[in-house]
Amino acid sequence: MPGGFVRLPRRCAVAVAVTTAALTLAVPARASAAEPPPCRARPAEAHVDWTGRNFTGDFWCELEPGWIRIQSRSTSAVIGRMEFSPGWLVCWKKGSDYLGDDRWYYTQGDRVLASPASKAWGYMPAVAVKAPKHPVAGMPECPWTDGSSSPAPR
Question: What is the pTM (predicted TM-score) of this model?
C-alpha cells in the first residue's frame, strides 16, 4: 500500500478507537512534574547542631543530593554531602545567589567530607530543596540571620 498505511475495515477501526479511548481513561493522570510535593512539618523532632544549639522541630522535604557548605555562599567550603531523599531541614537564611535564589537551608549532611568537628552541619541551596515555594512555608528563619554566616558556638 502506498505511504505505508493499511486501511482497516470499518468494524476494526471502531474497535481500535474504543480500545484507545478506554485505555486513555484507565490511565490515571499524573501530577504536574513542575509542582513538587510540599515539605512536611515535624514539630516534635529534636536536633543539636555541632555548636550545641538545640532545634525543636524540622521539615521533611524531598531533596536533590548535593553538597553541604559551611556557610550560605556558593563559594564556601564544602564540608558534607546530602545523599538521601527525603531529608530534614531546621531553618533557612539568605546568602549568596545560587541559580537564581539566595535562600539556603540549614541541615546536617549524610556524609562528612571535611571539618569533622562540624559533623556535616551546614547549608543547602534552595534549588536543591523540592518545595512549591521558598522559603518553605512555616519554616523559621535561622536565629543568627543578623548578618553572620553560621551559628555562634555556645
Answer: 0.74
